[in-house]
Design brief:
Strand order of the largest sheet: 1-2-3-4
Strand content: 5-15%
Radius of gyration: 16 Å
Number of helices: 4
Helix content: 40-55%
Number of strands: 4
Shape: globular
Order of helices and strands: HHEEEHEH
Structural class: alpha+beta
Length: about 140
Amino acid sequence: MTDVFTPEKRSAVMRRVKGRNTSPELKVRKALTGLGVRYRLNRKDLPGSPDIVMAGRRLAIFVHGCFWHGHDCARGSRVPKANREYWTAKVARNVARDARTAADLAAAGWRVETIWECDLKDAAALKARLERMLSR
């Protein structure tokens, strides 16, 4: 199956995919702020530039989109019909990069937590998870 968009239109659509301040990130940040927690965003001096960093707690949080980072939920395990080889290779590279980043942070003494996009559907469960994360 070919793409429904022209190459120019597809390029424009993909350019609009954000890497920062995504709605999943904003939900997590809002929940953390509601818990009275202070944090920093996208620290460049740490491997992988974590989405949310709490230096005093040595905690780095990544908020991952299920599709882009190969989660095992319904959205993450979906493979596009068009350009299948490209997308499977791309997601595999993302998964490998995420594992490398987590290992580098752990070796530097940081706790690494990943919050998946699909975890954000239940606000109460997210809040409970964040509280558990912060109490450690």
